[in-house]
Amino acid sequence: MNDATHFWHAYRTGRTRPRGRAPEPTRPGTPPPRTTWHMARRSLLRALFASATVAFTAAALSRIPAARAYGEPAGAATPQPDDGFTFDEMYAGHRIQGWPIEADGASVTAFVDGRQLDLMRRADGSYLSSVDHYESYATAREAARAAAAELGAARLAFVPVHGHEEGAARGVHA
Amino acid sequence: MVYTRKNQRNLSSAERRAFVSAVLELKRTGVYDQFVRTHIAFYVSDGDAGLRVAHMAPSFLPWHRQFLLVFEQALQRVNPRVTLPYWDWTQDNSPASSLWAEDFMGGNGRRGDFQVMTGPFAYARGQWEISVNVTEGRFLARDVGRPSRPIRLPTPADVDRALADPVYDVAPWDSTSRTGFRNKIEGWTTASGEARFRNHNQVHRWVSGTMLGAAAVNDPLFWLHHAYVDSLWSRWQDAHPGSKRYLPEVPPPEGDPQHGRVASLRELMPPFDVTPASVLDHSGIYRYA
């Protein structure tokens, strides 16, 4: 886990820390400690609540890919096998998206938080991004994930650094 | 007059100050950012079409030699006594090195956003606002050694393995060339895990932050790193007097996948009007001490 991912985990852990006061210590004259049943019931209730939260969160997250801006391709109704360049997910606190800009996937484009991520192709078919120029990754998705993790709290520039070459439509060729 | 490029650890405090001042002056006048842009524009990958001269190509070494020389000349227009120092990362590989001093490169980035907070290139000093960047960040960032997923610097043995190769470069003249001094130093592999980082690439990754991205030149450490890489090329030439000093000697023929995509010995390396052949020997301009 790199620092950016660690940062993100810590952030999420911080948010899910139990709220409310710590239990009072037991003193003479106070009610006896809770029974096993009480504890079990509380655990059960907590588990139910937690799973409900998870289910709710999952439902909410699963809606994210549906929330596309106008002009972006609609996701396939049924899950597609991972081709490595068609993706839309949250990773390390960033939304990463990618899709082919030629029907056969010979040319692809990728975005982080809606901003274009420059991708380049190595002769062995792997990908490198403008964020991480000295290592390459097997797929565009992996390169985008690595870029997202590397970005941490930072945001891609509005204009991609390589954008002057072929404009915003610049993709990489297979 | 042949001048000397010194190991940064041997600079006097006056020499350190002179170097830093000249760099800041180039930044102030906007000249520095042109070097950042040039390096971005000529970073062409070998899976993409077209001529590539700066990376993943035989001319990785001569292109950067010329890039450094032009930068050094710009520094010398500010102060004629300044030369590029080099950083021997096989020796000065700890945060205690004078490299990171307050009066030189400044230290590591802080936790969280990796912003460099010390030294002349800290954003808060007001003299180093990054204007050409991959991110929206306007500050220099470093994550030295990547403690969350540690990576080490190349060792003398790593460098020696590259220096031992008697052949300058081999077909297909790109990031997949399995042998040859050039790619062993540039550092592209198809390995996985720690082994996939080598020498030049590995150092960019070790410093991380700004140095990892397309706008790596924004970290002045870039020049010290590449000056050392340049010195290794000289060492390789000295170690192999019988080897061809540059390959390929002639352009790959029509039909070769690399035809028109690499600079052979006597072809120009844009944007410079020099060929690899014309920069093979730097002994009339500078030497390494």
UniProtKB/TrEMBL annotation, chain A:
Keywords: Copper, Membrane, Signal, Transmembrane, Transmembrane helix
Region of interest (Disordered), ranges: 1-36
Biased composition (Pro residues): 25-34
Highest taxon in the source lineage: Bacteria
Transmembrane segments: 44-61
InterPro entries from the UniProt entry: GriE/MELC1_sf, MelC1, TAT_signal
Coiled-coil annotated spans: none
Family: Belongs to the melC1 family.
Protein name (database record): Tyrosinase co-factor protein
Automatic annotation (TrEMBL), chain B:
Pfam family, one: Tyrosinase
Keywords: Copper, Metal-binding, Oxidoreductase
Domain Tyrosinase copper-binding residue range list: 55-72, 219-230
Cofactor names: Cu(2+)
Family of the protein in this entry: Belongs to the tyrosinase family.
Protein name: Tyrosinase
Source organism: Streptomyces violascens
Taxonomic placement: Bacteria, Bacillati, Actinomycetota, Actinomycetes, Kitasatosporales
